[in-house]
Amino acid sequence: MPELPEVEALAQHLRDHALYRPVARVDVASMSVLKTFDPPVSGLAGRVVTGASRFGKFLSVDFEDRKDEPGLHLVTHLSRAGWLRWHDQAAATPPKPSGRGPLALRVHLDAVGGPGFDLTEAGTQKRLAVYLVHDPQEVPGVAKLGPDALDIDRAGFGALLAGRTERIKNLITDQKVLAGIGNAYSDEILHTARLSPYAVSGRLDEDRVDVLYEAMRGVLSDAVDRSVGQRAASLKGEKRSGLRVHARTGLPCPVCGDTVREVSFADRSFQYCPTCQTGGKPLADRRLSRLVR
């Protein structure tokens, strides 16, 4: 799933390549991806791209005001398998709106068949969501976001954790509490902070909160620095190359050499290093525990 660094890099890629270009046409290949109907996506025709913004893990492409209508924002949540792909040329023939292939929505800029971008989604579980709104705050998920993980200061972060009973892994990935962090970067942040994913948020002392805050800032800032400027097609590989524990089950921890372990749930998993994070004690893998029974 694209998280804060990748979405920020995609926004910057659009700022570098799409700015001040008019929309020639919008093709919808999967009607289910659209979560709004008014204004219609056809209303983007002729509008000029004025910017690209990030709200947590949401990406917004911003379009100009008109005399009789305020600006428009094409807001998307890429979910687990969605992606934005830039193209210099594209087929001029509109795709059939079957929703079966990876293409969900295509935006032609300058001219039909010219440059632009596609929103795609791999796999059979279609969760990519696209909204066309006058204000990004009209998108329910954006309106409910907590403070951005790279905007919150140390005092605000400490206040956010104080008194909470959630496990720290769950808390920092809850978008209503803190926006932008998903499964992968939470694993990396907790490994850098040498914290168990099961640590209780409100029980961390001030020193631990300091370490966690600095780890969060460092991991995310480094990832943004590595990602911004990359071509959209290379961002996924860049993300994988920078990970130390996430998706590295069975490999040695690059810090201590211990074996990276995994805890699995129904539809997801997380990775950690026992030596660095849990005092050498492996955490129970719930999926394996159920199989043993």
UniProtKB/TrEMBL annotation:
GO molecular function, one term: 8-oxo-7,8-dihydroguanine DNA N-glycosylase activity
Domain FPG-type, chain residue ranges per copy: 244-278
SMART domains referenced in this protein's UniProt entry, alphabetically: Fapy_DNA_glyco (SM00898), H2TH (SM01232)
The protein's name: Formamidopyrimidine-DNA glycosylase
Catalysed conversion reaction: 2'-deoxyribonucleotide-(2'-deoxyribose 5'-phosphate)-2'-deoxyribonucleotide-DNA = a 3'-end 2'-deoxyribonucleotide-(2,3-dehydro-2,3-deoxyribose 5'-phosphate)-DNA + a 5'-end 5'-phospho-2'-deoxyribonucleoside-DNA + H(+); Hydrolysis of DNA containing ring-opened 7-methylguanine residues, releasing 2,6-diamino-4-hydroxy-5-(N-methyl)formamidopyrimidine
Pfam families (UniProt xref): Fapy_DNA_glyco, H2TH, zf-FPG_IleRS
Keyword tags: DNA damage, DNA repair, DNA-binding, Glycosidase, Hydrolase, Lyase, Metal-binding, Multifunctional enzyme, Zinc, Zinc-finger
Biological processes, Gene Ontology terms: base-excision repair
Domain Formamidopyrimidine-DNA glycosylase catalytic: 2-99
